[in-house]
């Protein structure tokens, strides 16, 4: 026989004094001595009686309380404890309400050890910070789908293709990070968004670089003796990237060898060996001159603290009216090697710090071609200080090697 229900009316709820009043089927209306009124569901689970709060009146109306009571009584009839089931559902809901910004920051934190300088330069995080988080940062990660991602990246998908590609890559990493945390996310969302966005029209643009024949003239023009000019001279002479050069510490130099820590080498996340750079006589002269400016052991200190910024050398060249960038000197060097020397491919690539060959090949080849590179870098250094002769009225430069 069904238990009586719907005993109370809205008029009675307002008139009731302190006490507990049954509406039937386990739903009770409790009026406290202080005047507070709330709904309670009584049920029995595994032989024990429980009372489950359903909210305060009038925030929870009579109709809403009856619907809630019916829902949880169905859970009890299904053999579950209503209170425990509600807590489980609440935990699941909270777990899936993690917003993307929090997930992105956590993913970034967990990857810092893999990034140069623990990611302090911000290049890993900036595509997210600038192009994804402003629109999706406050959105629960479990609710992000391919349409959200498409709409977010569409404005830059073709015009800033490389940046958009990096942003999509970082977002994919964040989604996988969220899944690893146990969150309910669509791991295919980024791939589906890429399909919706279509093939990018933008073609990658190489960093502008000086023709290797013009590098000596530029090198010899760096005669002001400033930290920036000395840094540019050494950047040209060693053909390394900006980061390890800017963070060059005096204890990394031993005679004519500069040893760059493995973690400072781009593209060598899994490397366990440092990278040795042979220093030409000209490079050693530049280092000796720069040592006068050293602070806290760093050869190229910043104006106030730390080291010179990534933009310092680029801005110097820009003020000279140049479109070329410091990183382009690596291309200048590589072209010189290809056009003016007979250097083997593996030696040339190793000189740039590139990883040559597959994992198996590298496991058998233990050399870093130091002696061959020492002769190569000495020849490159000498090329920068020879007499420069201009032909006719043109700007081409002939260098005798």
From TrEMBL:
It comes from Rhodalgimonas zhirmunskyi. This is Integrase arm-type DNA-binding domain-containing protein. The lineage of its organism: Bacteria, Pseudomonadati, Pseudomonadota, Alphaproteobacteria, Rhodobacterales. Pfam families: Arm-DNA-bind_3, Phage_int_M, Phage_integrase. GO terms for molecular function: DNA binding. GO terms for biological process: DNA integration; DNA recombination. The keyword DNA-binding applies. Transmembrane segments: none annotated. The keyword Transferase does not apply. Keywords: Coiled coil, DNA integration, DNA recombination, DNA-binding.
